[in-house]
Structures are given as structure tokens and as C-alpha cells.
Amino acid sequence: MRASQDQLIRPRGRRRVLAAGLLAVALAFTSACTDDGGKPSSWQGGGESPPPKAAATISEPAADAKDVPASTGITFTTKDAEETAVELKDAAGKAVEGKLAADGKTWLPAGALEYGTSYTATVTATGDDGRPATATSTFTTMAKPGKQIRVSSFLGDDQVVGVGMPLIVKFDRAIPEDYRDDMQRRMTVTSTPAQEGIWHWVSPTEVRYRPKEFWKTGSKVSYRVQAGGLPLGSGWYGRADLSVDIKIGAAVVMTVDNKTKRMTVTRNGAVVKTIPVSLGKKSTPSSSGTMVVIEKLRKTVFDTFEELGPEDGYRTKIDFAQRLTWGGEFIHAAPWSEGQQGSVNVSHGCVNVSMANGDWLFRNTQIGDPITVKGTERKLQNGNGWTDWNMSWDEYVKGSALPYEPPADPDTSPTPDGALTPTPTPTA
Fold first, then answer.
1. C-alpha distances in angstroms, 132 versus 5, 6, 47, 86, 119?
2. Number of CB atoms found within 10 A of residue 312's CB
């Protein structure tokens, strides 16, 4: 939950301390009137008040620090604190919104700070005595850097995708390995209901996120990349922050068995259709493994002359094409093989279906729907498409730049399904 810095945590016991103070004032007034001998006397105090039990220290940014990255967080420690509040204000006194990072030791602004601007951070710790202790640090952010790295997302706001859709974030320059953990700490995913998942670096310029199991139908997913002002090596900095909100649609899952030459389609766990298919012939077999629908093309042309040469190449108009791999494997309508579908493999690696079934699939699937092909002569190569689900969870975790810590109790409650709504790709 994002907490406004105007909403400081009030120390416990304040009302109790105030009441004790009023009682002391009343006693002082009575004592000043008379003593046993009838002579005026003055109240004798008990000396200075004891220091607060709690203590707070700000380690970063240091007081009076200059050229601080605009991505900076407030790193602090407290001692004997029952309640802690963090506040960051600019020179005009305007509060900056933010929240604690996952480690609980750093407070992160909701967005990159302004360049060349003075800020004051205040950490207030309150112990069980109700007495606050504060630490402050005033610092100045760096001037806007000349070398900036752009970050972009494949998905856009309000898009509805399939249950196998990975979250894909790209950088327009390679992120050095030593800086990927810093970047990943600033990449957060929030889902409703909560689901276990992790980021996986596919390459120096691309990182993806998937849950441990397929997304739950109807989930609302938000992901945020706080790259703005973040040092990313060799004098390069993140250009801007990026945030995206999407929704997960119905659980449409396709399974193709080479032995039966059939595709089984389920929706939210129930079988809705069984479709005869023709897969790749022995010389050009289809890949066995779990893939995801990458793109959908109502009409397109397959041209393989450059790849296969004039003798084996072909140029064919295709209807209802759904890309599965970068290597050219699709689900698509193939009216020329309808006689072999369900019995013989004759394709060049694609999943051939009839025109009617191709139309039905095209209308009932969306980007991110998973398909698993079983029993062919060739295994799917990881990286040939969105093959995130072709890896075991243990394999996927190894691609994280940070150690994996599973959640204590992820929510497993069901939610309703949705429909496809494509939107433009955001870029920061």
C-alpha cells in the first residue's frame, strides 16, 4: 500500500504523556500557594527529561551530499522503534510520495526525483515510551545525465492477455551483469489475487516475469520499472520510470498430441473443442514443448524462398495465423491438408487446421494463450519464441539477478474471466 508522506505515523502513548503533564502543572499550582508552615514555596523539578528510547539514523543519502542520483532511496536504521515514519520534502516543502522497499530498510520515492534539486529526508522513530526521535538529511540531486537508457514494455495499459503471457521489459542498451540486481530491485509486480512469480533475464537487454503457475483467470496485474535516474554502468542512467496495468483473460489452453493428431482446447478447465491437426512431416517436424501465442494475423503470406531456396521454397497466402515461434511455427488454416488432418503429418512444422477450425480458434484465443505440443521428433529450443513455460520453475528462477524468496501465503482465490483488448506499446 502506497503511503502518502503527509500521513505520518503518530507515536503511541502521546495522550498518556500529555495527561501526566497536565497533572504535574496542577500539582505545581497547588504547591505554590502554601506549605505546612503557611509560607510560599516553589516547585522543585526532577531535572532534564530522559532521552527517547528509540533512535533513528539515515545512512544514504549522507547529509549535504551532492550529485545524488535521481533514483535514490532513503536508507535508514532504527533502534527500539515500535513505529517509524519517513518523510521526504523538496526545498519548497512539498512532500514526495513513496513507500518502503521490500527489504524494509529503504524508503523509495514513487518516481524519480527532479534533477538538480534539494531535498530533505526525515526519519522519525517512536519507542514504547511514546517519545519520537528524528534523523534528517538534506541532499541535492545530480544534473540531468547525457547518457540515458530507454525502457519499454511489450504490453500496454488495459490490455487483456492469456494466462501464459510473460511480462516483457526491454532496454535499448545492454544492462551490465553487475547492475542487473540494482535494476531488478526497482522492478515490482502486483497481482490481485496475489501469485508467486519472479523476473528472469533472457538477455542483457530483455527481462521477463512469469508466475510459478499460469496466471489466474481474471487477475489484475500491475508492474512498475523504476529506472528513472538509476545508475546502470559506464555513466549511463535509466531515462524514466515505466508502469503498466493489464488484466488476465479466460484460461484458454491448447494441447496437441502427435499420437492422436488432435488438438484439445480447454476454457477455464473444461474441454470446449477437439480439433484434427496435421503437424510437421519428418523432414520438417513440429517442435514439442510449451509455447505461447505471440501474434495473430488474420491474413498473411508465408514466403520461404530466401530461407529454403528456389527448389524447396514456397510463397502461400495464409488465413487465421497465430505465431508460436520465431523460427516460423504457427497455428493456421490449411485447406490443402484438410484430408490429412487427424491422420498424417504433412506440414513444414506448423499446426495445420481446417478453415472452419482456424476461424474458430482465431476468434476464441488471445495473445499469451499457451499451447503444448507432445510427441514429435524435435524438442522446442528455449528462446525460440516466448518459451518461459518450457522451463521448469527451478530453471526459471536461475535467471533472476536476485535470490528468490517465495511468499509466505499467496492468495489462491478464483476470479472471473475477461476478453482481449489490444493497446499501444508504452515506452519510457
1. 17, 17, 20, 12, 22
2. 12
Write down the pLDDT at residue 312.
66
What are the start-end ranges of the H helices in 164-286? 177-185
Whether 33 is catalytic is no
Q: What is the pLDDT of residues 73-111, one digit of tens each?
A: 999 999 999 999 999 999 999 999 999 987 788 999 999
Give me the pLDDT at residue 306, please: 65
Using a 10 angstrom Cβ sphere, with 0-12 exposed, 13-18 middle and 19 or more buried, the burial of residue 260 is middle
- d(C-alpha 86, C-alpha 100), whole Å: 9
Strand order in the sheet with 295-303: 295-303, 315-323, 330-333, 351-353
Question: Per the structure block, which three cell numbers stand in for 151?
Answer: 525502457
Q: Which of 126, 18, 37 is nearest to 82 (CA)?
A: 126
Q: Where are the alpha helices (DSSP H) in 143-272?
A: 177-185
User: Which candidate, 168, 158, 157, places its Cα nearest to that of 205?
Assistant: 168
33, 200, 332, 348: the active-site residue: 332
Catalytic residue (choose from 33, 200, 348, 350): 350
Instruction: Quote the Cα angle for 54-57-63, to 5°.
Output: 145
Cα→Cα distances 218→16, 116, 179, 193, 269, Å: 49, 43, 34, 9, 14
Taking alpha carbons only, the member of 99, 94, 97 closest to residue 117 is: 94
- CA-nearest of 173, 176, 113, 111 to 143 is 113
Backbone angles phi, psi at 264, to 5 degrees: -105, 125
Q: How far apart are the first and last CA of the chain?
A: 24
Nearest Cα to 358, choosing from 315, 317, 325?
Answer: 317
pLDDT in tens, 362-404: 999 999 999 999 999 999 999 999 999 999 999 999 999 999 9
Reading the block at residue 297, the C-alpha cell is 494475423
Query: Which residues in the chain show pLDDT less than 70?
Result: 1-47, 304-314, 409-428
Place of cell 522519525: 124
pLDDT of residue 313: 64
- Alpha-carbon gap, residue 224 to 111, rounded angstroms: 10
**CB contact burial 135-156 (16+ within 10 A = b; e otherwise):** bebebbbbeebeebbebebbbb
Active site residue 348: no
pTM of the complete model: 0.81
* CA nearest neighbour of 364 among 408, 320, 328, 396: 320
